[in-house]
């Protein structure tokens, strides 16, 4: 059956890295006999300025008519961030109930990282993607009185913790068998203690996986000091968001970090996107690093069961990165987005 891929380039560097990725996906598909049908959607900032909404009202149905989505990024300086971030990517994650955001961090040989000893780092952050601190609950009290109070309520429910935990344990079981739960139960008294309790219960069904519970502040230090002691990290929405930017640096920076928004076991297309945003500071110059988007494309193919195509992309990325003449400015080089993408295409062996 054909793979129906929806592509949302979005804003800023989004269209640049997506344009670099689609031909690589197409090559991987051709090389493995896959019929890849690509539909481009014009959702994002320009559409917001034109029509008052970043995506159509039936966006979730449009997505459901596809097998997967490749998303670039949204955000532009002349539109308030929440209109685009909530109006598109957070909105889709919630409407489609995409339970977890999976963020692998892999230090490729030859890529400078500006932090010590990242050789061999290979870990995955599983971030709960629908609740926690990002449910949008709360409000403003005494607004405009000079005594304004902003109240942001975090929501953590057993069902949502359980499904994220199951995914993390299964992933850890396929990898090294080590899972680190990241919470903050010494200072927060309700939500994170529930996480600890529920995840320990799920652990009983996964005796093959060794669970440790680590406080988020300690985890921040450990990610920098001994990242190779880590394999799969499970975190709530806020901590997962923050730690994954930190962890991305271990692999060379924001330009290197892919992600997958998925509902494990559910019949919903996943949304695959670089962790980074629209990078307005470098947009339009053709120098964005396309690797985060390329690796998101590899995750997409892998989750659809096309492992040979996914591995082909990763190996070509890895081979291209060994040669510093293909490095974009964020990696200390002077290659353009298209230079690096062309080097990856050249090295596709499937
Ligand atoms: P950002 O990730 O866009 O940029 C942070 C830094 O990383 C910048 O210095 C940028 O130049 C660099 N960077 C990002 N991607 C890169 C790439 N592919 N190659 C080389 N360097 C890269 O985060 P920032 O600046 O906080 O946000 C910019 C806009 O993006 C905002 O409007 C924000 O709301 C939006 N955003 C959207 C996201 C999404 O669509 N999922 C996620 C994060 C931010
Ligand atoms: Mg983030």
Structure commentary:
It comes from Terracoccus luteus. Keywords: Manganese, Metal-binding, NAD, Oxidoreductase. One of its GO terms (molecular function) is NAD binding. This protein has 350 residues and is α/β, with parallel strands linked by helices. The chain folds into 2 domains: 1-99 and 258-350, Isopropylmalate Dehydrogenase; 114-250, 3-Layer(aba) Sandwich (Isopropylmalate Dehydrogenase). The chain has 11 helices and 12 strands. A hairpin with a 7-residue loop joins strand 6 (132-141) and strand 7 (149-155). The two termini are 20 Å apart. The structure holds 1,4-dihydronicotinamide adenine dinucleotide and magnesium ion. Magnesium ion (MG) binds next to helix 8.
Please describe the topology of this protein.
Elements: E1 3-10, H1 14-31, E2 36-40, H2 45-51, H3 59-64, E3 68-73, H4 81-95, E4 100-106, E5 122-128, E6 132-141, E7 149-155, H5 158-174, E8 178-183, H6 191-204, E9 210-215, H7 216-225, E10 232-235, H8 237-250, E11 258-262, E12 270-274, H9 291-303, H10 307-321, H11 337-346
Parallel strand pairs: 1-2, 1-3, 3-12, 5-10, 8-9, 8-10
Antiparallel strand pairs: 4-5, 4-11, 6-7, 11-12
Helix pairs in contact: 1-9, 1-10, 1-11, 5-6, 7-8, 9-10, 10-11
Bound molecules: 1,4-dihydronicotinamide adenine dinucleotide and magnesium ion.
